Amino acid sequence: MDDLMRALETSDASALLTAAEEIHYADLAALYENLDDAERDFFLKTIGPELATDVVAELPYPLIEEALNHFKPAQLRVLLGNLSDDDRVDVFQVVSEDTQRRFFALLGPRDKQLTKSLLKYDEDTAGGRMTTQVGRITADMTVKQAITVLRRDREDTETLARIFVVDEQGRLVGKVRLRDLAFNTWDTPIRDIMEEAGETILASADQEEAARTLSKYDLIVLPVVDEFHHLLGVLTYDDALEILQEESTEDIEKLAAISGEQSEVSYLNTSASQHYQRRVAWLVGLGFVSIASGYVMYRFSGVLEKAFVLSLFLPLVVAAGGNSGGQAATMVIRAMALGEITAGSAMKVAWKEARTGLFLGLSLGLSIAAFIAFILPHLHTAAIIGADFPRLAIAVACAITLQVLSATILGAMLPIAARAIKLDPAVVSAPSLASTVDVSGMLIYFTTAGAILHL
Amino acid sequence: MDDLMRALETSDASALLTAAEEIHYADLAALYENLDDAERDFFLKTIGPELATDVVAELPYPLIEEALNHFKPAQLRVLLGNLSDDDRVDVFQVVSEDTQRRFFALLGPRDKQLTKSLLKYDEDTAGGRMTTQVGRITADMTVKQAITVLRRDREDTETLARIFVVDEQGRLVGKVRLRDLAFNTWDTPIRDIMEEAGETILASADQEEAARTLSKYDLIVLPVVDEFHHLLGVLTYDDALEILQEESTEDIEKLAAISGEQSEVSYLNTSASQHYQRRVAWLVGLGFVSIASGYVMYRFSGVLEKAFVLSLFLPLVVAAGGNSGGQAATMVIRAMALGEITAGSAMKVAWKEARTGLFLGLSLGLSIAAFIAFILPHLHTAAIIGADFPRLAIAVACAITLQVLSATILGAMLPIAARAIKLDPAVVSAPSLASTVDVSGMLIYFTTAGAILHL
Question: How far apart are the first and last CA of chain B?
Answer without folding.
Answer: 72
